[in-house]
Amino acid sequence: DAQTYSLNGQQVAKPAYAASSASVMFGGPLKIPKLLKGNNGMFTINYQLRRSRNGTSQVGTMPTAAERSGDFSQAIITQGPVTIYDPLSGTPFPGNVIPANRINAAALALANYYPLPNASGFTRNYSTAIRSLSNSDNINARLMNISLTKKDRLSGGMGYMGSNGSTPNLFGFIDTRTGRSINANIGWTHNINTHLISSLRYTFSRSRSLSTPFFSEKTNVEAALGITGASTAPINWGPPNLSFTSGINGLSDAAATLNRNQTSAVGESIIFVHNTHNFTFGGDFRRQQINPLSDANARGAFT
C-alpha cells in the first residue's frame, strides 16, 4: 500500500486500496417437526462475500496540444527531432507543420480522446491513478444422507455465485464485467439387497460472463466519424485501435465478450459387494453447451 514509484518524476495521489471478505455458515442435523426427525441426515448453508478496490499508477506518452494541431516543430524522439514528410510528394512539410487542410477530420476527433500531458517532456509525459473494482457473492446449500426409507437415501446441493467489477485504463475508459453461475446436484442411493447398491445422480451447471467496453451500446464513435468497414453491432461500439511507431500510447479499449455455458449430466452406477471385494458398473450421459460471442478486432485498427 506504499506510494507508487514515479517513472517520470511527477507525483500523483496515492491510489486507494481496500479489500474485505466475510463468511457465515449454518448447519446441523436435519429435523422438521412431524415430518423429519431423529438421525435423518445433515444440512449446511454458507454465504461468502468479497469486496476489493485495487489502485495503481500508470504512466504514458500523450501527444502535445501542438502535435494535435499538426505542429511537430518542437517534437523530439529518441533519435532526435522529428521530420514530417508529405506522403504525396515525399518532401518534408515546411517547418514540420502539417497544413490544416491536409489533416483528416476523423484523426482530429480521435486525438480528443487522448488526455493532455500533465508532465514535461515528450515521453512519459502523463501519469494518473486508476482504481479497479471487484465484487463477488457466493451462497451454497447442501443436504446429506436424507433417509426416505431404510433402503433409500437422498443427497443434493445447490450453489450460486455472482460477481461484478470495473477496470479503467489510461484514457479513462471504464470497462465493466459481470458474471453469474449456478450449479445443482441430486443423488438417490437405493440398497437393492445386501450385495447390490444403486446410485443415480443428476448434475446441472450454467454460467454467464459479460465484458462490456466503455462505449458499448452508448456511443457509436466510428459511425459518427465516418469510419466504415467496422462492426455495427452496438456491443462493439467504440473507437478503432490506434498504434504509433513513435512511442505515443496506442488508443485502445477492451473487446466485448459474452460467454454462456451450460452442462447437464445424469449417471447411474451399481455397486456389487462380494466378501471383501467391491465391483462398480455404470454409465454417464453429459450434454454440454458452449456459447461464445466475441470479435477480437470488431472496431478495426490503424497504424
Q: What's the helix count?
A: 3
How many strand elements?
12
Q: How would the global form be characterised?
A: elongated
Strand coverage percent: over 45%
Average pLDDT level = 90
Oligomer: single chain
Radius of gyration: 30 Å
State the main characteristics:
303 residues, mainly beta, two-stranded antiparallel ribbon, 3 helices, 8-stranded antiparallel β-sheet
Summarize the structure.
This protein is mainly beta and 303 residues long.
Topology:
Layout: E1 18-29, E2 42-60, H1 65-68, E3 76-77, E4 80-81, H2 105-111, E5 126-147, E6 152-168, E7 174-191, E8 196-212, H3 221-225, E9 241-242, E10 257-274, E11 277-294, E12 301-302
Parallel strand pairs: 9-12
Antiparallel strand pairs: 1-2, 2-5, 3-4, 5-6, 6-7, 7-8, 8-10, 10-11
Question: How would you describe the overall organization of this protein?
Answer:
The radius of gyration is 30 Å and the shape is elongated. The model has no long low-confidence stretch (mean pLDDT 90). The chain is mainly β. The chain is built from 3 helices and 12 strands, in the order ββαββαββββαββββ. The strands form 3 sheets. Strands 1-2-5-6-7-8-10-11 form an 8-stranded antiparallel sheet, with no helix packed on it. The chain is 5% helix and 49% strand.
